[in-house]
Amino acid sequence: MRVELRGLELYGYHGVHDYEREQGQRFLYDVELEVGERGADDLIESAVDYSRVAATVREVAAEPRRLLEAVATELAAALEERFAPEWVRVRVRKPDVRPSGIDVEFAAVTAERRR
User: Fold this and answer.
1) Catalytic site positions
2) What residue numbers bound the domain in which 8 lies?
3) So what's the pLDDT on residue 102?
């Protein structure tokens, strides 16, 4: 079984440029956790509560970092530590970026961890 949250939109202060860390911008988070059969018994106590997953994303995203790689790595580690999934994938998207002045849909970094 997989718990997924897609497109969690949070404002953050990540970036290489000073103005990114000062002004901030939107970031989108996609999270997947492979949790085996946890929750199949219909008990929230044995399931991975996705509201707690979202709160973890919010907590990690609140800490400014220079690189998306660092944000994704820290988030994957926090999710692994708190929820002990068999596998976790985190994608951090930066939708309002214009690398070298070129329009793109988004820039993204993906981090994965397996037990």
Assistant:
1) 94
2) 2-114
3) 82
